[in-house]
């Protein structure tokens, strides 16, 4: 982890990051750049989340980042990490929009002082069907969102 963070700092010509995140609670097999099937992933039970988090804590303690957090962690995985962590995650970045409100995650995060940041506020068109509600409509086709975009003279993609 340290070499990757130091390369990022060097590339950006800065001394520290404001926020450093574990992007997924999964790992790709060595040599895999982009996962195309389940075989490209290391099984969840074989991923040392606690070891990865200890490295994150070390980067924070060494002042290479000011804050640390995670992305795409569900309640169970986030709760487990918090129980083993010396420094608790400050942020969990998750997909969050009108069709994926994640109220249980928001409540859990509030109770545990974990900030939530949202990505894909207009939905994730490329999200696998297995993660969508049956017949889930596209937010880009939503009349209310179209009206808001028109009111603000923006395209739906800029809304």
| DSSP strand content | 5-15%
Helix proportion? 25-40%
State the major sheet.
Answer: 4 strands, parallel
Q: Which radius of gyration do the C-alpha atoms yield?
A: 18 Å
Q: Uncertain spans, ≥5 residues at pLDDT below 50?
A: none
Can you identify the CATH class of the largest domain? Alpha Beta
Name of the CATH superfamily of the largest domain: NADP-dependent oxidoreductase domain
Rounded mean pLDDT is: 88
GO molecular function: oxidoreductase activity
Pfam families: Aldo_ket_red
InterPro entries: AKR, Aldo/ket_reductase_CS, NAD(P)_OxRdtase_dom_sf, NADP_OxRdtase_dom
Organism: Fulvivirga imtechensis AK7
Describe the structure.
- There is one protein chain.
- The protein has 159 residues and is of the alpha/beta class.
- The chain has two domains: 2-121, NADP-dependent oxidoreductase domain (TIM Barrel, Alpha-Beta Barrel); 125-159, no CATH class.
- 33% of the residues lie in helices and 13% in strands.
- It contains five helices and six strands, in the order αβββαβαβαβα.
- The chain has helices spanning 2-12, 49-61, 75-84, 103-111, 143-151, and strands at 20-22, 27-28, 41-42, 68-71, 91-95, 115-119.
- A four-stranded parallel beta sheet has the order 1-4-5-6. A two-stranded antiparallel sheet has the order 2-3.
- Helix 4 links the parallel strand 5 and strand 6 (115-119).
- The protein is globular, with a radius of gyration of 18 Å.
């Amino acid at each position: 982890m340290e070499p990757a963070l130091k390369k990022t700092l060097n590339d950006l010509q800065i001394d520290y990051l404001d926020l450093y995140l574990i992007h997924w609670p999964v790992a790709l097999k060595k040599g895999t750049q982009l996962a195309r099937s389940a075989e490209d992933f290391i099984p969840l039970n074989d991923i040392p989340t606690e070891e990865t988090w200890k490295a994150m804590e070390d980067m924070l303690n060494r002042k290479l980042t000011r804050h640390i957090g995670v992305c795409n962690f569900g309640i169970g995985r986030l709760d487990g990490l918090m129980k083993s962590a010396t420094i608790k995650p400050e942020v969990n970045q998750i997909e969050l929009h009108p069709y994926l409100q994640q109220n249980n995650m928001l409540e859990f995060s509030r109770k545990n002082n974990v900030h939530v940041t949202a990505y894909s506020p207009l939905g994730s068109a490329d999200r696998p069907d297995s993660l969508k509600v049956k017949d889930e409509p596209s937010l880009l086709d939503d009349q209310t969102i179209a009206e808001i975009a028109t009111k603000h003279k923006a395209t739906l993609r800029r809304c």
